[in-house]
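Hi Y.,

Following your request, here is the sequence exactly as I used it, all 102 residues.
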Amino acid sequence: MGILKKFFGGKASIQQLPVGTITVDRQGNIVASTVSSAFPRALLQTIAADVLELLKEARAVQMPLSEVSLHFVSLRITVRELRGGAIIFLSPQTAPNKSARP
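Below is the corresponding structure, written out as tokens. Let me know if you'd prefer a different format.
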């Protein structure tokens, strides 16, 4: 998937996962963000561009999406369409705590 190649760049590296929200306009410019400034802004721009492209492609095939959820092993990306722009929720997924189960 293209977003994974962009996210990890083909190189194995350890980096903190993004946490927070990004609001983008229809051109893909970040309008507001609650993601830590320690996370590379260029990577946030890439995520925003890919999300807007996904929404655009869905409209082009007469299947407009109002919300999309992408679940990866360690990261969940939830997107809500906002009149051409989008709000993107980024949240890390944690493994369930087995010791807490009865």
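The chain has a mean pLDDT of 83.

Thanks again,
Q.
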